[in-house]
Structure formats: structure tokens, C-alpha cells
Amino acid sequence: MSTSYSDIRYQSADTRLTLYARDYGGSGMPVLCMHGLTRNSADFEWIAGHLSTRYRVISVDQRGRGKSQWDDQPAHYTPGVYVQDMFKLLGDLGIPRAALIGTSMGGLMGMIMGAFAPQMVIGMVINDVGPEIDPAGLARIASYTGRGVAVTTWEDAAARAKETNGVAFPDYHDDDWLAFARRTYEVRPDGTIAPAYDPAISQAFATPEPTVAPPDLWGMWDKLEGLPILAVRGEISDLLSAETLKQMGERHAGMQAVTVRNRGHAPMLDEGEAVTAIETFLEGLVP
């Protein structure tokens, strides 16, 4: 497994921001990894490094996250805008088609990309999200997004990470939470440690119809017929129900699915059953 990557900095689709991505290299099929609402490219560091021995793996920071610039117009923090940035990145890199791995919001982005530009998508892995989102999980995410307070030690950051995500990883130990915090928090100029995203992304929850997800998701799902899809679900997920996963398979012939034991929203994709399913799925794609 490779742990090295090179930095990519590129202009957003609207040319207003400088965005960031990790390029793990590799000469095989391009694989684009897209994170969830409050996360960043580091979410995929294990699976990206693991896959980079066979594929060209790129993991992104969406605008307002990680090393990408914050947007002074929070209305742009929507999946539709992020997707335009992804198409811009692929174009800049000279990649006409890619396989997609998307966690939560990143999975919704993959669905949008597949529905509106199927010629650019080889296949997709969607991690713990689907056309129907459980309100309980959405409410839980809304309860902490944009409300993270700065702390002064990494141990405190780990405690905060456990407080907001402990329900999803019941078997994590202190070392796991410290590693989780180092992926999802950053040191600010004043020396404090805070979540590595613009708090303004929480405005996506501020409208009667939250903009974190597009409307008519089932209609969009039906447009994906013919594209290879692997759906990953956490066994104890509060965002993607087992019933929704079942309906997804019924409406998309050939969809593959795997449920990750003892995981909520969302699996980290370093779990054995997830890794095996992703490896098998990618090996079956035709670039």
C-alpha cells in the first residue's frame, strides 16, 4: 500500500477559488474519491493508498473543506456546484472517464454525475447514502455541522470527534479517535484546533428544503440504469435504511451491495468486507 501522494491545486469551475486534491499516482483506471459533508480528502487515505498500486487514485477537498479555499458565497455550498468543480478537475487532468467512490454527500455527487454525464462515469461506489435519506440521520448531522468549537489539544479534538461520531464506530478506541481527529481537524493560525471546514457549510440546512441533497432523488436514481454501482451500507446506519437499500437494488438491475458490520454512518472503507467488495467491483469495470 502506498501512503505517498502529490498535491494538486486547481481553479474551481467558477474560477473564483483555488481547490485542492491528493493524487496518489498510479497508471491504471482513474478513481475519483469524494468525501462527505464535513470531511475532506484524508477520509480516503487508507483505501486510496491501498488502491493506488493498481489505479490512478485522486481524493478531493471540496470547496470550504481541508486545503481548499472557503467560499465567501455560502449559497455555493451545494452538491450541484461541487459536481461542476469535479468535472473541471477531471478536465484539467485530461481524464475523460473515471470510476467514482463517494461517501455520503460524495455519493450524492456521484449520482448527479452519473445521471447527467454518464459518458464520464465508468462505475461508482456509493457509501452509506441513497435516493431516500433517513430524517433521523440528517438531523443528527445538522446538530453538529458548523457548531464545532476550537480546542487546544489533540486529545480534546479526539474527544469532540468521538462525541459527534461515536454512534457510527462503537468499537473505536482512543488511538482510533485521535487518528480520526487528525484527519478531520486542523490547526488554525492562532494555534487552536478546529474542524477542517468552513462553518458556513451548515447554511445548507437553513432552508425548508435543505440543499445538502438534490430533490427527486429516486428520479435521479432511475437515470443511473446501466451504470455499474456498488452500494455500501453501515449495518447500524441512521442515514441509509436497509429498506431503502433493498429498493435501490430492485430499481437498478445488477446493483451490487455490501453491508459493513458494526458501522453506522458512514463506513471508513478500511473494513474488510468493504475493501473486498470495492476491489472486486473495480476489477469488474471496463475503463
Features of this protein?
single chain; 287 residues; alpha/beta; eight-stranded mixed β-sheet; two-stranded antiparallel sheet
Spatial arrangement of strands, main beta sheet: 1-2-4-3-5-6-9-10
Question: For the report, how would you describe the main beta sheet?
Answer: 8 strands, mixed
Q: What is the percentage of strand-forming residues? A: 15-25%
Main structural class: alpha/beta
Secondary-structure element order, N to C = EEEHEHEHEHHHEEHEHEH
Radius of gyration based on Cα positions: 17 Å
What report would you give on this structure?
The chain is an alpha/beta fold. Helix content is 33%, strand content 18%. The chain is built from 9 helices and 10 strands. The strands form 2 sheets. The chain has an 8-stranded mixed β-sheet, with helices on both faces. The longest helix is centred in the N-terminal third of the chain and has 14 residues. The radius of gyration is 17 Å and the shape is globular. It starts with 5 loop residues before the first strand and ends with a helix.
Helices and strands, with pairings:
Blueprint: E1 6-11, E2 18-23, E3 30-34, H1 45-51, E4 56-61, H2 79-92, E5 98-103, H3 105-116, E6 121-127, H4 135-144, H5 154-165, H6 174-184, E7 185-187, E8 193-195, H7 217-222, E9 229-234, H8 242-251, E10 256-260, H9 272-283
Parallel strand pairs: 3-4, 3-5, 5-6, 6-9, 9-10
Antiparallel strand pairs: 1-2, 2-4, 7-8
